[in-house]
Amino acid sequence: MLRSLSVEEVNVLRREPVEQETLEKTEVIVRAVRDQGVEALRHYAETFGDIEVGGALTYPRDVLDEALSSLPEADRALLERCAERVRVFAQAQRDSIQEMELPIPGGRAGHRVIPMDRAGCYAPGGRFPLPSSVIMTAVTARVAGVKEVWVASPKPTTMTLAAAAVAGADGFLAVGGAQAIAALAYGAGDVPACEAIVGPGNRWVTAAKKIVSGLVAIDMLAGPSELLVVADDSAAPETIAADLLAQAEHDPDAIPILISLDATLPERVDVALEEQLRDLPTAETARAALQNGFSVAVSGLEEAISLTNSIGPEHLQLMFEDAESAMSSFTHFGGLFVGHVSAEVFGDYCAGPNHVLPTGGTARLSGGLSVMHFLKLHTWMIIDTLQDAQGLVDDAVNMARHEGLEGHARAALRRKK
């Protein structure tokens, strides 16, 4: 099931987020939507089967509300519970980011925290509908204070449209792929140009985000899903197998990994994987993904920590005795799940932390989606006592002349007492 590798054989998850061929083909689509607007958006949406010929490209808020109202009460309550937990977690993040002011010579300086005006939130919809991604992205944007939030997802189900209503979206673009990202970046028809575009997607979505990055803020260039489980003999192999399959069924390119503190555990997990695949509806996809994964038996916890940190997985699950005492030693991951009961799938759906996470080893560089992706820290300065600011004047003059910028020096000298 999982290839057995030695520590030395492990290739860490460093990969280019987009291959050149995909990037070049995507650029054609992005440029067409940029230059031709809604005409090109409709062309590609119909060509790739996002919508029927002549079908609606966008849905206004009242259609989202109608979808929510049409759901059975249990489904509506499910969406509302999940969204509320994400909202509470995001609000705690927002509350931790404070405006700041401190004294400087002759005055004060600080920063303000200002939300972006518009955000585009992408949710995949090709292989499986993902209303959970609608909640993770749009709720977080709304909590950050974004004034206008649009969701994009191809072939939306009623549950996906209802999730957008629960999350507080203002409008919905029923289009996916590069054409959706281009519309959110440049604007097309009813879709406004956004300042931030976030959310997971396939290689075309990732390539389009890379192309428009700089014009708009993006969260990350995400690739296939990853789960790394660090376990010892206290973990049930059947539970490990279930958790690995939960990630493997996402995509044939997903990467399930087991780092074992017990030499016999990988073989027992393999037996459990084979058993559970027999009646798993997504077994074909999961089997393909298992070929990307591997297991490694390590000599001890120190080696497990070192190897895990070098890999930098999207999801990291610790299933060994007293895992909480060791969690601070794990420093490179997207989301961390500590203990036998802390299933990664709780994070996928309903616990509160965001499931939009860095992949491909980029957890060494950044964390997952948060309110910070929709906020700007703007600095300010007020000099209100010129006499006390003369040290600033002198330093500015001297630094400017060291750099050969006499205009800067003379501007500072205008403030000389």
Notes on the protein architecture:
- The chain is an alpha/beta fold and 417 residues long.
- The chain folds into 3 domains: 3-16 and 224-364, Rossmann fold (3-Layer(aba) Sandwich), CATH 3.40.50.1980; 37-218, Nitrogenase molybdenum iron protein domain (Rossmann fold), CATH 3.40.50; 385-413.
- The protein is 43% helix and 17% strand.
- It is built from 16 helices and 15 strands.
- It has a 6-stranded parallel beta sheet with strand order 1-12-11-10-13-14, covered by helices on one side. A 6-stranded mixed beta sheet has the order 2-7-6-5-8-9, with helices on both faces.
- Helix 13 (323-326) links the parallel strand 13 and strand 14 (335-338).
- Helix 2 (38-47) runs antiparallel to helix 7 (177-186).
- The radius of gyration is 25 Å and the shape is globular.
Give the helix/strand layout.
Elements (H helix, E strand, L loop, with lengths): L2 E3 L14 H17 L1 H10 L10 E3 H10 L2 H23 L4 E5 L2 E9 L2 E5 L8 H14 L3 E5 L5 H10 L3 E3 L3 H10 L9 E3 L4 H10 L4 E2 L7 E6 L5 H12 L6 E6 L4 H13 L5 H8 L3 E4 L3 H11 L3 E5 L3 H4 L8 E4 L5 H6 L25 E9 L6 H13 L3 H8 L4
Helix pairs in contact: 1-2, 1-7, 1-8, 2-7, 3-6, 4-5, 4-6, 5-6, 7-8, 9-10, 9-11, 15-16
Strand portion, in percent?
15-25%
User: Helices and strands: which structural class?
Assistant: alpha/beta
Provide the domain count: 3
**Number of helices, counting only DSSP H or I runs of 4 residues or more:** 16
Classified by CATH, the class of the largest domain is Alpha Beta
CATH fold label of the largest domain: Rossmann fold
